[in-house]
Amino acid sequence: MSLQAKKRADYQPPAFLISTVKLTVKLHPTATRVVSILSITRQGEHSAPLVLDGNKLTLIALKLNGEAHTDYEESENTLTVNTQRDSFELYIETEIDPQNNKALEGLYLSGGAYCTQCEAEGFRRITYFLDRPDVLSVYTVTVIGDSRFPMLLSNGNPIDKGENADGTHYVTWHDPHPKPCYLFALVAGDFDLLCDTFITASGKQVALELYVDKGKKDQGHFALASLKRAMKWDEEVFGLEYDLDIYMIVAVDFFNMGAMENKGLNIFNSKFVLAEQASATDEDFFNVEAVIAHEYFHNWTGNRVTCRDWFQLSLKEGLTVFRDQQFSADMTSALSNRIKHVRVMREHQFAEDASAMSHPIRPEEVIEMNNFYTVTVYDKGAEVIRMFHTLLGPEKFRQGMDEYFRRHDGQAVTCDDFIAAMQSATETDLSHFARWYSQSGTPQIRLAHNFDKEQGVHNFTLSQYTKPTADQKEKTALYIPVAIEIIDHTGKQYQDEQGLIKDGLLILDKPEITFTVSSHTEQLTPVLLGNFSAPSKVENPLDIKGLLTIFTHAHDAFNRWDAMQSLYDRCIETLYQDTTAEISPAIWSSLSQAIESEKNNLELLGECLVIPSFETLCQSRENIEVARLINARNQFCDAFAANLNSVLLNIFKGIDGGTYVYNQDAVISRRCKNVILALLARSAENVSLVETQFKHADNMTDSLGALRASQHTCVFEQLMAKFEQQWAHDPLVLDKWFALHATQPNDNILATITMLSEHPQFSMGNPNRVRSLIGSFAFYNSEKFHALDGSGYKFVTDYLLKLDAINPQVAARIVTPLTQWQRFSETHQSAMKQQLARLLNHSGLSKDLFEKVSKSLAYDSASS
Ligand code: TRP
Ligand code: ZN
């Protein structure tokens, strides 16, 4: 096992290239044979041997130009072929064991079907190869299987098929687009098939095929319709057309992540394909559409233009997340999308940046690549692309994108190449902006404001500061686009004297910038970071009155929502500092008015009635005493529900359920209704509302809304039992049920989870089950995970030790909350580190867990 970190700076171009790959895969559960014929060419003047990557392979035969070749060495992770030839054909035959592949990387069996997952470095578990994204080859693949696997799929177009004498059959596929091996895919099984067609802008007909488990056809229509919307959108917004005759999507139950963009043959976690009224929530529908679009958009941003090396991952992921976010905003609503993504940034990305795993969107050092599919690379990466979009404006951004494809179609490139293409479209010098790619950590923006009454001048100083992070001690000022409004208590907008704020945007490219506004009014309110214009924290000096001014008068709806979040945070802080404190009646009456005033704007109202999560509250605090913060939050939620009961109840009753449809208005109504129900359920007299909704719900959003609301009530167990009976047959619905159990802050929660892990539908081998039960506990049952006696930490650790032996990738994700101990009080910290040390001492620990755990523990000694 190699525990050596690879460094971005050590990149070397490949010593050999592989122009064509001919693969023949003869499927067998425990002894699949893979024959690979490679055309290889030496690059440049050197005499080094050919070193291929391989993992868990049994070499059966090796031939060079048709002759048996014996001059080679095998090691645990490589096959070194000694030859002085510059150009040759290599024949490699290997045997692999898909049935015992529980890591779900390479070729494995998922519920009776064969499928592959090669990103990032899974192809080396299928055959010896140059497993790196800058080696692009044209693939011809023959899949051979028996009659239990009538459907045999791979990338590109089918070019041949037939029967073999031994009763097996085969299909041959050819993909004309050169691609790195991480985009290779193979699927074999017996599925229900949904077909459709799409005519591209230039008139080409594309066959669309969606493969789902038998009997689930009805749940596939929405995904297929989403695919067509995504294809159309990419033509309209980016001028990008699909480039093969066929586009296939396969849904499988055993999958480590969301989905995978293999060329022409996407493989999906079934959770992001299957959706119908009875069993899928509005959120599920939303996610299906977003993930379908994400993988489709990769066809250009990822596949046609790919990454030179894995340090450049954000080149494709940040950009593709940005593209799917823009798509979702166009399909649904810009505001709720923005809020959703900002919540992800604040709850998860800021936490990552404050931990030992902090890294820039283009990391410098990696031990296990799978650990770097992070919220930083993906979501902060998307925020950086969004800032390009803000700085250039939509037209020039599009020009930059066009130029990027013009220059790099068919190539494996770097983030610097992307920046250079964007630079070609704008006069703005982007060299300082590019620091977002190399600097980790969350910048904090501060605003100082003083008023010179005599002169009638308001002086503003905007400053930035980035705390040192685990990976990087020195920080410099970033180039930050800060959207700003300056308003007074009537909503009137003011301009700065210096003209630094242009079209509502101020570029903070120094440690601090000052500007002034002339006005005799004392009540000027600065409104910062409109639409979350940069992935930063804002230290807001405003009092409750200022926050209410923003809520009432700011033009930016995101700022209005954010002001409410800050207001709640202030109230919770008061209770955190002093449990006997009371929230003043004036605040409740202001809130009541605010709610009343938005009763016709259910979208904003619904989001404003969500009290910041515990995870969000953690981002602005240190030395956190978990129980005390959770109590303060609960106390606030209870008081909120009690004091605003009548206004909430009125709105709740006024929201017309109507007949079920899935459209934007209906989604907004259901969202608002369920957010309110969760608050109302905190008062015992409203429990019947929860029961009624549960009983009459004709869709999963309302059923689950009622169940979630019942978490604070005495009817929880009873409703959960009913729900289990109703849905025992549907694993994706049971995942929701597992997660609700796992997030209950019961005293006997650990016993409950242990019992549930023995549920007939639960299996440690299925990542969806593990994430919903163990992952939900670790990430979202903060009260019990952080129990002061350390029992929650120990429980998760015990589980991870078992899980790591079969699926390290998933284990390394679930360990995340344990590695983020820095924000908590000493008692928590030492109990968390004790468990991390247990992990580190475990013999046979995967490199996935080793990397995260060792970093987390090392941070300790470095900082103390
Ligand atoms: N490239 C995929 C995406 O973002 C995600 C991915 C990376 C993945 N590694 C994976 C998916 C491993 C499944 C398993 O769309
Ligand atoms: Zn992606």
Automatic annotation (TrEMBL):
Give the first-level EC class, as a single word.
hydrolase
Q: Start and end of every Peptidase M1 membrane alanine aminopeptidase domain?
A: 222-435
What EC number(s) does its UniProt record assign?
3.4.11.2
The record lists the organism as Alteromonas profundi
Q: Enumerate the cofactors the protein uses.
A: Zn(2+)
Gene this chain is encoded by: pepN
GO biological process terms, alphabetically, are: proteolysis
Query: A Gene Ontology molecular-function term?
Result: metallopeptidase activity
Residues in domain Peptidase M1 alanyl aminopeptidase Ig-like fold? 441-540
* Residue ranges annotated for the Peptidase M1 alanyl aminopeptidase C-terminal domain, each copy included: 547-858
- Catalyses which reaction? Release of an N-terminal amino acid, Xaa-|-Yaa- from a peptide, amide or arylamide. Xaa is preferably Ala, but may be most amino acids including Pro (slow action). When a terminal hydrophobic residue is followed by a prolyl residue, the two may be released as an intact Xaa-Pro dipeptide
Q: Which domain of life is it from?
A: Bacteria
Q: Which CDD domains match?
A: M1_APN
Identify its protein family.
Answer: Belongs to the peptidase M1 family.
* Official protein name in the record: Aminopeptidase N
Where the record annotates domain Aminopeptidase N-like N-terminal, the positions are 25-183
Annotated keywords: Aminopeptidase, Hydrolase, Metal-binding, Metalloprotease, Protease, Zinc
Q: What is the lineage of its organism?
A: Bacteria, Pseudomonadati, Pseudomonadota, Gammaproteobacteria, Alteromonadales
Q: What does this protein do?
A: Aminopeptidase N is involved in the degradation of intracellular peptides generated by protein breakdown during normal growth as well as in response to nutrient starvation.
